[in-house]
Amino acid sequence: MRPLIGITGRRLASGNVRSFDPRFAHLHVDLVWSDNARRIHEAGAIPVVLPFESADAGVVDRLDALLVTGGQDVHPDLWGGDPERASDDADPRQDATVHDRERDVYEIALVRAAVSRRIPVLGICRGNQVLNVALGGTLVEDVPTTGVVHAAAEPPPSAGDADHVVTFVPGSLAHQLFGDSARTNSWHHQAVRDPGPGVTATGHTADGSVEAIELAGAAVLGVQWHPEWHLGLDPVFPWLVESARRRHGSDATTTRV
To answer: pTM to 2 decimals?
Structure first.
């Protein structure tokens, strides 16, 4: 049986989606980037979209792995950041550029539930940051401007774009997947600062910015780039699916719907 992998997303007012009939502008839609679901499917698993209402133990118990996706900054109140950077007065359903505390809480709850059940987790971009915050870590408010590209001036990278080189710590999971280094895309202005307890930074760019994290003794990996945009199947997806298969095969208590 193909493993089930839950994918997190975002919630927006349908009026922000151009293809929606304006008569439904007062309603909300849950969205995921289709590339994430496609990559999970290509790697051999069944992608399952998780709405905000799914952040409870009963749902997590039915999953074989969790993918936490990209999006807005994590609210600074949740990791001890600068409160002046908060935007609670704005509506994240209407303005997708501001913080979304409801999404933060939902994803943090999912991560903690998954980790406590030893369910494999992959965090991508914002998901990497959510993973670290959920495990007690902190973030960099704004990655300093250096000679290394972190946030391009143009729209998000298309398939195959590669903006910088990430070097991996020998002996780490990331090193097993990528070797000494890999060229990746980059589309972020925040990053992991202090890894949470048990979390190790295992990938860095030349300026020292953290690009990959792992949780000791668990199938938990975060990457700061967008592997779903790379040409071909990035190694993180087969890793997540294989980890999900192992977890599914060893857990006789998992109930399917």
So the answer is: 0.89
